[in-house]
Task: structure prediction
Amino acid sequence: MRPQIATLLKGASIDQEITVMGWVRTFRNNQFIALNDGSTNQNLQVVVDFTKLDESLLKRITTSACIAATGKLVQSQGKGQSVELEAHSLEILGDSDAEKYPLQPKKHSLEFLREIAHLRFRTNTFASVNRLRNALIFGIHQFFQERNFLNIHTPIISASDAEGAGEMFRVTTLHLENLPKTDAGEIDYAEDFFGRSSNLTVSGQLEAELAAMAFTKVYTFGPTFRAENSNTTRHLAEFWMIEPEVAFNELKDNADLAESMLKYVIQYAMDRHPDDIDFLDARLAEEEKQKPTNERAEMGLKEKLNFVLNNNFERITYTEAIEILLLSPAYKKKKFKYDVSWGIDMQSEHERYLVEKHFNKPVIVTDYPKNIKAFYMRQNDNCEPGKETVAAMDILAPGIGEIIGGSQREERLEKLEQRMNEMEIPTKEMFWYLDTRRFGTCKHAGFGLGFERLVQFVTGMGNIRDVIPFPRTPKNCEF
Ligand code: 4AD
Ligand code: MG
Result:
């Protein structure tokens, strides 16, 4: 096993002869190489004796060159590092022309780095984000596995629209220039690869529900795709979603599960990578300083995460949320761009007000109007006529807005069929979904956590394009 720099800096292999490999960050005084291998933002100082090295070799030690250095790891004499490598031999594994290398040892804007996403892994910010992203993936699996949830792989290509929102990417092998037509002049999908029209999935929920009706507790963790033309700092066309589904759970159990999961994975990531959290905390503080005082976040990254861990999420109904908004100074002073009344789909300015101004912590909003939510949500009993609600829940997080969307599901066949008909969701095609309500139905609930929004929350990154290696957004499919 080759030693990793993170391990070496913790004091492993001291006074031993070792070989390290990595990429040169800087080379100072023909003597000191700052070497990085991605295991930590801390570089290993490699000291070379330039009197013993060939001039031509020295010249090839450039920023971004890949090298292998062999020598003894010793306690460092200099300031700023605990150990260093006294290299007696050096091999250039991959040359790099520092003049042409787009990343200079200076601060680059996040926008610029997005244009060179193939190289931005080598920056401290993206290294920290990606290590935390990895810890969150593992933490999520661990949370569910410890609780005996079964991980289910749901299909990526699908013929149904799980959200009924029509925001799907079509999957086809038909020739776009020469489409087969039916006698009626419509595109003949019978000729297509699957013999029917198919899409990339927007959610694994419906299939997860089928599995929950056998295994009781399941979760999916997969890529999902949305062809919504939203150019915001919170939307991707391709993102990863975690969707647990639990038989016998009601809405409150669902909210409890979501809150404990979020706290668990945040703690997990913080424990795993305290240095990266510190780095991003400082980065964010620096970024905040550039903003006008009234736009600055009240808490730093670490403070915010600890606050979330140590406090209960606020739980309110949609109706209460609307009441709070109507009574708010922001509403009275006409600060909201969009009007507020019972029945609206809250805009992000409303959600932000609730979370960042009113409660200043994560908020779980439940029982939304039936008309603004998906067909599968359980219809609440005993609603005031005209104010019908469903057992939905959204979790709103400071700085992010909606991080989780979920609900208790409609388990009553007639009610579900009726709602699907109202919303023109094809009941015949979705016989398989309805079958679970025909054969041993039961109460159940689940939710979807947008993974990139979680990574944004934990890293403090303002733009979702900076928490996934290769973002897919409208008009952008580079790399
Ligand atoms: O609220 P959504 O659309 O809910 C569902 O898809 C349900 N089937 C989930 C379930 O109950 N099993 O999406 C769930 C979450 C959102 O709360 C948000 O965090 C994230 O997915 N999300 C997106 N993240 C990035 N880019 C987008 N375009 C997103 N759309 C939703
Ligand atoms: Mg939603």
Remarks:
- The chain has two domains: 5-101, 122-167+202-466.
- The mean pLDDT is 95.
- Residues 169 and 199 are 5 Å apart (CA to CA).
